[in-house]
Batch of 3 targets.
Target 1
Amino acid sequence: MHIDGFSMTNETTHRPIEFPHRHLLGIEGLQPPDINMLLDLGEEAVEVSRREDKQKGVLRGRTQINLFFEASTRTQSSFELAGKRLGADVMNMAVSTSSVKKGETLIDTAATLNAMRPDLLVVRHSSAGAVQLLARKVGCAVVNAGDGTHEHPTQALLDALTIRRHKGALGGLTVAICGDIRHSRVARSNIILLSTMGARIRVIAPSTLMPSGIHNMGVEVFTDMKKGLQGVDVVMMLRLQRERMSGAFVPSVREYFKYHGLDSEKLAYAKPDALVMHPGPMNRGVEISAEVADGAQSVIREQVEMGVAIRMAVLEALAAQLPKWKDVP
Amino acid sequence: MTSTNQPILLKNARIIDPANNIDARGSLLVEAGRVAGIALADSATGSPDGTIVQDCEGAVVAPGLVDIGVKVGEPGAEHRETLQSASRAAVAGGITTIVTSPDTDPVIDDPALVDFLLRRARDTASVNVFPLAALTKGLGGSEMSEIGLLQEAGAIAFSNDTHAISNSQVLVRLMTYARDFDALVIHQAQDKDLAGSGVMNGGLRASWLGLGGVPREAEFIGIERDMRLVAMAKGKYHARLISCPQSVRAIAAAKADGQDVTAGISINHLTLNENDIGPYRTFHKMTPPLRTEEDRLQMVEAIARGDIDIIMSDHNPQDVETKRHPFAEAEAGALGLETLLGAGLRLVHSGEVPLSRLLACLTCNPARRLGLNKGTLTKGAEADIIVFDPERPWVVEKSKIRSLSKNTPFEDELLTGKVLTTIVSGQVLYSSDA
């Protein structure tokens, strides 16, 4: 069915979007209704994305800048596509390390960009808190696309959308998050989101890859994968960075894979219909076997699709609030 | 403000001089730049003609504070603080003697630089300035600096500032060599490997914020090692800044064992904790990091008990260029000169530390440790004196900060206790306008 521009506008005016936040800096601070609203909006975006005409013009005339201080092809493409499907003008800015070396601070960059009057700013930075700092210095809505080892809210939201589509609801599920919890912003955002929505969370990792204070983070802690996976509904694997594989945190790749890599033998401890997830990019043979990654329980590719959808939802929700914040400095 | 040498009579005051165990009502006479005498209670005070009489109306008269942890931007970062601007901030905070950090650019590791600082101080500073010199060349932690020559040039003691010396052999040789000159070694201990690239206190807070943590063990393993090395070298050692109760215990044990050691802390670690970092506030980034509330409470107890000897401001002016960054990339350090006394009085108002004990840690203790004839109201001592009202509230306003930098961790906070008058060498250099 062909939808013309006029009806596209109507499509979005049937229901006002209630989202009481100017930015999306983290999952922390979101309430269950906020999360449900974004997931519902994400469902609609999935439908839009599966149509022949993938345009939904709610961001027409809006400017979105993707500001990536840390290279990430996947996340950046996902945000770019999301913005374009909503009709925004999208500009990608990769801030090379050289301009940082030239002495331009994060704040200088923010001020320069702000002068270009963007409406939406998607930011990734290697330092925790950097996106929050930047958000205080600009007049537009800011989306955190990952800040150091702090948060990666759209990843947690896309994971939640994927789970909800398969399991109906998040509350009451048992979710195992496995691997490098210590250095993972994905783990932090997921722990906050899943516990806010009433899921039970287990973390499974060698103790060297657990963050300090993990026992007080509202999760059950396991170091034995077989015990930890017993009866879970969802298995979320995390990527192990190459520099942490050989000696500093774990002795070797083969030892890590033996005890903490997800293979079909270990997966058998989870519920038979348990979902296998991974935020990507995967290290096959390090944290996950190829067999499981490409197996029947894997929803890893679906996560990528949900990524675009949830980013459309986030951009739309924040753009809908822009008039409200217009006169707030 | 007077710049004459008129005698000054401070009457109707609560005189506290921890060095002489005095805490009583009375009046104090300053004559020819020195303390001419104290008359307690209602005994008549004779004062010469032309004396300026100040009725203190019950306010406290105490020795001017001696702050042994002050970073000024001279040389190398004069846009952040000069000896002149630091003096203005100091007198407003009741500090009459500052001991400057060797961590400048260039590092104070050459007698000519000590000489430079003393001349700059003579020409531009209004408070007493005593420079520390670097323990190791360039603060590098490997080569001993010229302790004898630096001391002769006027270095009051030796410190590597916040740069811990990892090499135990270097440190023990330094202490052994410094002993020949009766020089005090000031060291801020830390196990560098354990501290790693941490930027705040290790633990749950750091984990949620996604910031690298410095475990408390990084500090007290360093202190425990240092205590063993002190026993080996039989040197004079002052722990620059400790933040964990385990460090207190290690130092107390060494004292009980007869070692010549003392312990210091910054006002920040006595009045703030890791939660004050909130959403990545870089003004609360410190070295060592602010610890938990439980640690802070135990450090306050250690002050009250006498296990920590010296409180310093750890004044470290930083500007927008160094602070307005993501937390991990921002420089550590906070202003402290103007808020040292007001923040310290929080411990008095909360009933945790007696006023005379607080003042001892801020006056006679640091002076004695450095061998300075300061921090006391003994008859004949240089008249470095403050009058303050411990009950007068004030708000720390950014626009009124006298330092060239504005990185106070107490911005917009209410402090109770305000300096009314600051006298240096008999001259009134500061009078509160309100």
Target 2
Amino acid sequence: MPATDFQGSASGFPSFGRSILSFRRDQIHSMETPINHHHHESAGNLEADLNSFQKQVADRFHDLWSSSSAAAASTASEHLLSVVWIRKLLDAFLCCQEEFRAVLFNNGSLVFRPPVDRMVSDYFERSVKALDVCNAIRDGIEQIRQWHKLLEIVLCALDNQRSLGEGQFRRAKKALIDLAIAMLDEKDSSTTVAHRNRSFGRHNNSSSAGRDHRHVGHFRSLSWSVSRSWSAARQLQAIGNNLAAPRTNEIVATNGIALAVFTMNTVLLFVMWALVAAIPCQDRGLQVHFSIPRSFSWAMPMISLHERILEESKRRDRKNACGLLTEIRQIEKFSRVMSELTDSVQFPLMEDKEVEVRQIVKELSQLCDTIKDGLDPLERQVREVFHRIVRSRTEGLDSLGRAYHND
Amino acid sequence: MAENGEEKWVAVARHIAKTLGRNDTMADDILQIFSNFDGRFSREKLSEKVGEEDPRACAALEQTIKALERQISQYVTADHPIWVDSADSSAFLDAIDELISTIRDWTPMAGDKIVGACLVRAEDLMQQAMFRVEDEFRLLMERGGESLELSRAYGNGGESAGNLSFDSDDEEEEEAVGGVGIGNGEDHDRIPTARPITDYDIVIDALPSGTINDLHEIAKRMVVARFGKECSHVYSSCRREFLEESFSRLRLQKLSNEEVQKMAWQDLEDEIERWIKAANVALRILFPSERRLCDRVFFGFSSAADLSFMEVCRGSTIRLLNFADAVAIGSRSPERLFKILDVFETLRDLMPEFESVFSDQYCLFLRNEAITIWKRLGEAIRGIFMELENLINRDPPKGPVPGGGLHPITRYVMNYLRAACRSRQTLEQIFEENAGPLPSKDYPGGKLDDGGSPSSLFVQMVWIMELLETNLEAKSKVYKDPALCSVFMMNNGRYIVHKVKDSELGSLLGEEWIRKHTAKVRQHQANYQRSSWNKVVGVLKLDNASLGPHVAAKLKEKLKLFNQYFEEVYKTQSTLVIFDDQMREDLRNLVNQLLLPAYRTFIGRLQSFPEIGRSLDKHIKYGPEDIEARINDLFRRSGGSSGGRK
């Protein structure tokens, strides 16, 4: 569980654990009292809720923007698109979503009837599409975890040894080749919907298992849990489809709620887009149209983050990156350096070379720790986003359903 | 003196360590104990001096390494699989064991130049040996799997194999035939016979037992030599593929959430059927078999076993759970209830398996995930009931059902609830899950039969019945004729009670509820009587006031009025529908009892007047028999075309 401060906003609406039945009875009873009464009660709160939501989104995105900007100079761990930063992004999503939920459920009498109800169901539909992105990202995290395991073998081979001999380097080299193949394989699927024909079992080498036989590619990467035709790029487009800022008459007709719905839609799209940008998944494609009116208080940081991620993507996707995550770049860099080193190294190892190797191994050890410590919480958080989306949608559908009782 | 004494001590310590340590590889530990015991026995002091002082020992080490190099390189360079010959493989393993113990024994003395150089050679040799055993390990895994598939397809006969849904693919079989002839083929107690799918309580040996022993021997060396990660990786990726293959043989597709949402319900139903089978096969056969295999291959290394097992099952389990999740998130259309109940029940019934097979620290998250999704299916089912409520609520009156007959919604809802209550226990569980404290005034009907507090499902069902009745009442308003209105309520009320009575729904709602609703039907019956026949009977009343002067004329007038009313009522009511035979009979009797005695009395009275008596036939249009015949002609069985199901 990420450490977030949802408690503040969570108290404003019925807790989830409450009985649907008793909740419904309240609803039925309240139907007997004039709707206007209800309406009137919450009219002042609505504006406060809407403002607080916008402020939450703006604060969070300013924070994401400024921490990733300042990071270049100070702490590298909060670097844009690092695991830590992505976790912060997901945290932001969870908070915004929670605040949005408060807007919806504090103002149910307005929200769950026309014309707002249609917009709200539209949001739920988009958010369901995000669930597949979450699942794909989860696969991607598992993918990174596999690479991390190979790095650990490299570390195991070269770390903590009294002496560095040829054997250890061969062992490291083998793991590095497996790593390179695993990442290459990943690039295939990251950039196009690859039709990787994985025949099950028994390939090659039934006869030869000679000395120089390298089990190249034995480290078969994982397969995705979604079908091969699934595409992250298409999924993102579906989330962003027909997403446009509300017109003035819509804003008026909805007492401003339309703005909140649009904001939440955009946050959803941005967060999913950034996840796909950062983490390996099938058919990564970032060509999603963002139209963000600059009048929103959160627009500037979001647009800026969007641009910076796009730049990063242009820089790195030319080299066919399988994800813009900082740690992936570090893995790539490390495996390149290490491969060069293992190719060029002479035995017995000269002292200066050994010092160099030990230095790199130390860095590798740090990288392994970062990944190791980062991935599990990241995966849990992606899962949490998934659950939160489902829960909020379930509640929403319940409320929309109940609202029909009134008709 | 002191100097000399210390030297002596160190020499003794070294001697002890060496003599003891040589045999059982405890030298390092012993030295460690010494150094902890007394500062004078520092590790450097103890180890440094070995080489320095004992060149003969170093020479022996070099000899050993040389011999091991000769032995091991012979296997490392072999161009055929080593494990086909058990003599070869055990000699190879012995050599590795010696290498491992040599490295361990001499590592504390690595500070010495010669020893250090020897250790580098030993490590190098170790790496080569490990690469080779890793290859052999993989080969054994793959070959073992092959021979299994073979015997599954041919050894046990196609029929029983088919029961496990491991429909084998001809191409692969042919390929596999070509690859036979490996493994120490004598004593494999191969897979047990596949039994019919209803019996899931079998654990298969995924690999022949001889192969498992071989794998264990290799794994043991790899883990001890710190190559455990490689071993675990090879193991997991091979088994993972095996599982994936098994899944595709169970014809389970990989579906995204969205694909599940968009799927036609019928296709999804089929997919759910396959999923149920696959989930059972996976949790009851495949995963426990994997667990067993893993525990045997990594026997003695529980952490490596747990981690490898998680790696093997993770993907398949998530795939299974994702599908169930997608089903839970999907449409809440009421017709989906029954299939989603199946999914819920499948997961529920598999919970003990999830608990037992995923109990270790690495797999715990899979178990928790399963619980989460299982609960979510419960929520989905509650959502479906909510949707049912909405459907009832929103069902518009539209046109009246002809003759006040049975409304399709009554049929639909009652049959739906009856069918749902066949899964009563599951539903109780689902609704209990989410129940908060319910104040007793919250549900109508007061106490339960047994005096206990009501179940949440009871409250839910009472609520739906209430909604249905409210909706029917609204629908009854479209009838202009109050009698017709009552007949409509009577018919539908009767149907409801009837459907409740002889089903699980009845035992759920209880006697009290049934009594109350039977009374309601009687109330509608009374209303019907009042609104149609009371007026007719009223005409026949002979009170004192009517016995005034012009009695005869008044009576004649009354008779005329009676005829008129009776004809009117008869005309409107001959089209009435009473679907229930018994009720139709009862109703006719009721009307007869109401009307006939009064009519007979009236006629008798009329006959007592001589001036009327003569022309009686002229006035009496209907004899009592005619009335009875007409009444028995009232009410039809059904309203023609309106009886279709919704």
Target 3
Amino acid sequence: MTSEKTISSEPGPPSEGKTRTNSTFIRVFRYSLLRLVSMMVTVTIGVYLTILIANMGGYVDIIMRNEIRDNTTQSILANPNYRSLSPEAKGDLIQTKIATEINRLGLNQPFAVRSMRYLKNALTLNLGRAINMKSDQGSKEVRLILLERLPATLLLTGSSELILFFGSVFIALSLSRKYGSFWDKVTIALSPTSAAPSWFYGIFFILIFAAILRILPFGGLVDSPSPDNSLDYGLSVLKHLILPASSVIVSAIFISIYNWRTFFLIYSSEDYVEMAKAKGLTTRDIERRYILRPTLPTIITNFALLAITLWTGFIITERVFLWPGLGITLFRAINFYDTPVIVGSTIIYAYLLAITVFLLDFVYALVDPRVKVGSGGGGSQ
Amino acid sequence: MTALKNSIRDLLRYPSAILGSVILLFLLAVSVYALVTIPYSEAVRLWRGGEEVWYQNPKYAAPAWFNIFYSKKKPVSFSVRTTDGSMSKATTPSSDPEISTVDITYSFDYAYEGVPQELMIYFTSQFKDKFSFVSVSWITPDGRTIRIADMAVDHSLTFRFSQDQKLQKRLKTEDVMQAIFMDPESSTQADLKGQYQLVINGTTFEKDATIDAEFVLHGELFGAAGTDKYRRDLLLPLLYGTPIALAFGLLAALGTSLLTMVIAAAGTWYGGWVDELIQRITEVNLVLPFLAILIMVGTFYSRSIWLMLGVTILLSIFSGSIKSYRSIFIQSKESSYIEAARAYGASSSRIIFSYLIPRMIPLLIPALVSAVPSFVFLEASLAVLGLGDPVLPTWGKVINDAFADGALYQGRYYWVLEPAILLMITGFGFAMLGFALDRIFNPRLRDI
């Protein structure tokens, strides 16, 4: 979806002024509507596929039915209140209870019908109730289960990705000006280190800072028992954040700097940059007005797509550091065959992605005068 | 041919390419060695084996070469047996043809600090009715002889020094290892260094009866790679993980990049609804949570590495790169040589496979090589999530086992570091080579 910009960033004919405002509005409206519909179709298909996979095409039902049968039978046989009942009465009671439970979970409908209901609920963000999982507060609402873990995930993904993004863009910008320098070569030499994922650096960091030096914790969110006052609590969380966040940053920083640097270098060899240099503008002005400005659409795209990935969390990094975020919740949900939680997490990601990609088209038009929404003639505003 | 030569010459100009190629050749050599020396079924059997396969090894032993770094040398495990001649055995017939004596001796230098975890003798004996008989004694470096045990040997018998109650009683201590390795005269608790000797005197009471013995010392260190919680020699997964990692990485990268390219080419060539469909599938694929689907497939269906490979390829085909290939194909579709091919009546498939795709190979090769590490690490990532192939010894599984057992917390760093370093070497090897290839095949990057 990112390369939508290549389609819409074709330089269109120059704006023809206010006389065309009305047709511009219609064009933008039509384009937006088409985009929205195609996004919606995409999201629907994606979510339905997830529902199918998360239910194994209905096989999870059999597992759930068996579980219900086992649990109900056991709870009735173990309940002393029912001990006086005759075996037949007990059997009847078990059958009714199983039927109620299956009915409650909607398992009596065929899978095709049920999957459509799941789809409708997911698309209307009616996330429903989890099958087995509970939030720490004891609620079975998928919304609450996910919301409860959101702060921890946003803290980790947000802090690490923001540092990573802005750090690498600014370092790359300054490297691109003095390319061939010592630090430039160091960055190039180190960029293959990004072949390894963040959890991989995580185990090295745990080894060095937690196991050998014993200055930082092995994992978790706060000390146990957690500190009473909020200042100590915050400090404790920060201490636990250092290792996972730095493993995310270290795993990607060099390739990220390298990519941005190459990107900026290509733009800084444009004729208009040479012209600006010849005019004797300061490097600061050249950077800001002649390099950053034309590259802004790409920077914004990358930032927006990065912002969406913040939502998903890092499943493996969270697991290695025992970080109680959404990634670990999703992993646990899969192990519990808890379809509502899996689908809930997917639908939110899908919506965020669709909305972001949709909005990006308009943002391009705002920051880059060459871009026209809908790729026809006329301005977008 | 000259083009190939030129590319190789270009490649040699980059130190990273040379280093990367050396690493890859080394990994290939290890893979070939592993596959030749350990057949697939044997590797699976050993990896899945329990005590019956790995009884000779201590638990949680670090590699033997760790002693280089220790000022106080730790005991290194070993095992010797009469069946392969590593322990000497002499059979002498007596005047009675039914009776013969078997003398088994083994001397070894013990120059380590501390005592071993355990000493064991595994006897096997062949006879019809009459049990063989052995007496075991232990000669310390200062010349003392300690009587260890006298016993009848069944067809097989395991004798553990520490757990033998008679021996404990005789030595008047529960700590047999201390008693047989310590200097009784010394006031300090130092063990006696020097040559120890194990002497087994056996007697058989039948004509063709035999006694064989295997002597095992469980120390703190073991072999070239150490052992894990289940006494398994880590050398096995380290060696055998190499071909698996390479196969997974290469197949996934090859499958993904080739299929992506073919689909992108077909989409641009046919245009219309085919192109539209491919673009829509790509968008749907972006919405799907890649890792979550892999985890679901692993949890719900099967954890076989080949199924995972298939799903990985399937989910990676319709990625963002299909769009960048597409934009290049759109340009080359209008080229005059395509026009010429059309003019002589070439079929669509001929144009796609003989004209469109070959032009892209320079772009494909660096992308392919650079994609390998991410797939190698993906396999390890799945294993770390507990979704590794249940039967295959892989690097990721070793890391997962170590993590599950709290290896870092307990200070058993070798357990995590060995597979991790191999993973790192593999990743960097491919990444460095891919990096250099990228610069060679994309001249635009060369000056930058």
